[in-house]
Fold this sequence. Notes:
The strands form four sheets. Strands 3-6-2-1-9-11-12-10 form an eight-stranded mixed beta sheet, sandwiched between helices. Strands 14-15-13-16-18-17 form a six-stranded antiparallel beta sheet. It is globular, with a radius of gyration of 24 Å. The protein has 16 helices and 18 strands. The chain is 36% helix and 26% strand. Residues 417-426 have low confidence and may be disordered. The longest helix has 16 residues, at 16-31. By secondary structure, it is of the alpha/beta class. Magnesium ion binds at residues 9, 151, 154.
Amino acid sequence: xxxxxxxxxxxxxxxxxxxxNVARRVAKWQKAGHDVIVxxxxxxxxxxxxxxxxxxxxxxxxxxxLDVVASTGEQVxxxxxxxxxxxxxxxxxxxxxxQVRILTDNAFTKARIKEIDAHxxxxxxxxxxxxxVAGFQGCDSEGNITTLGRGGSDTxxxxxxxxxxxxxxxxFTDVDGIYTTDPRVVxxxxxxxxxxxxxxxEMASLGSKVLQIRSVEFAGKYKVPTRVLSSLTDPDIPIExxxxxxxxxxxxxxxxxxxxxxxxxxxxxxxxxxxxxxxDVPGIAYKILGSIAEANIEVDMIVQNASxxxxxxxxxxxxRSDLDxxxxxxxxxxxxxxxxxxxxxxPSIAKISVVGVGMRSHxxxxxKMFKVLAEENINIKMITTSEIRVSxxxxxxxxxxxxxxxxxxxxxxxxxxxxxxxxxxx
Length: 426
Ligand code: ASP
Ligand code: MG
């Protein structure tokens, strides 16, 4: 007998029919002798609808009141699911976040969980209940309702699993797991059976479509065994089969066999800014990036080249949606440093990252990546690396070609990606 937290997202509870299916699946686990805590999202589209309502009243809704409104979607689904379980003859009890007392800070619309009071949940479980908790919400120390940011139910689930020391946190969703890359771009992208949590953090652009990134951070911090799997299979499939499905996020940092590259993430949401001719003296990077940071614009990659005649060039990337704002800031704050070259910007770039914990102990992933791109005649505009990631910027129009070529070259389309297969082939 195990303690299992199961989370069902908006699509999985998108209709009363689907809620009944969730109840059947949950009942199956409980009948098998497990203690089950279920965390649910609002029915799909509901949170958007609620936020739109608020915006009809106030263009920028008051954050405290927005949370009061936005958190109600989940309250509907917990009640409906509890009824569906009772209709199947199961004991069930639903709670909102504040009722459990999921204590958060007071950052409305993006609150962070500080503490969870588990005693009521434990009592209910002991009495044979399925405990159903509304995702995405909690309350601050003064009892104000807070929400955890879009997609926050994942974080509620993982945090509950951590607080109750659950044996596993199962994130049921409308895809069957996490893929080596986006299957819409690479048709033979493969579902991963396992992925290291650090890889998922790096692959934010892949993983975050499936999981709120904060939930992954939580899983990593408290080592919560977390599995992403489909809620659209037959709810009565055998538990053993269900337990083997999906993608398991792992934490072992052992020397065990590791594939070099696990996945390829990419993002079109990038733009590059270059100041081609700035003085190569202390304080210039601070002057440029300081003013950008002050405007609350996030900078991703930064490159400064060699200096010539006391001048250098300085490039960085921002989210494409921030480009105009960033250019205005530079014009205003940094203009004394902008010399003849002016400011160059490029809104049509894309970022591609090759990620894998295995590359930590093997040199040459970057070299192989560059070779593949050279063979495709794709120009690399910027490069950054970390221990487990190599990221490049290319022209957006070559992005898909590059992702496909890299996916193939690193053997990610192969059934078994053994160390040998994905080792560097020169
Ligand atoms: N219902 C919330 C949202 O749509 C939270 C969630 O689904 O995880 O963002
Ligand atoms: Mg989600």
